[in-house]
Design goal:
Shape: elongated
Structural class: mainly alpha
Number of helices: 3
Strand content: under 5%
Order of helices and strands: HHH
Distance between the termini: 39 Å
Oligomer: single chain
Length: 70
């Protein structure tokens, strides 16, 4: 996520998944790994839901175009 660019929920979830995967790779405690695996799994479910709800790029562009009023 960059400064000046509005963050999207999908980008945020993907970054969090990446962070949790990195943390899991560093962790050797089996209980902590189970908790991290559960968190990663749940965020993947959210990611799939967000992808399903995301409009196609051309559809999103249509929504952003101003309509002419008379």
């Amino acid at each position: 996520m960059r400064r000046g660019k509005p963050p999207s929920a999908l980008d945020y979830v993907r970054v969090r998944i990446e962070w949790l995967q990195d943390e899991r790779a560093k962790n050797t405690d089996s209980t902590a790994q189970l908790v991290l695996d559960k968190s990663i799994f749940e965020l993947r479910e959210v990611e799939m839901l967000l992808e399903r709800e995301a409009p196609a790029p051309e559809e999103a562009a249509k929504r952003l175009k101003p309509t002419a009023t008379k």
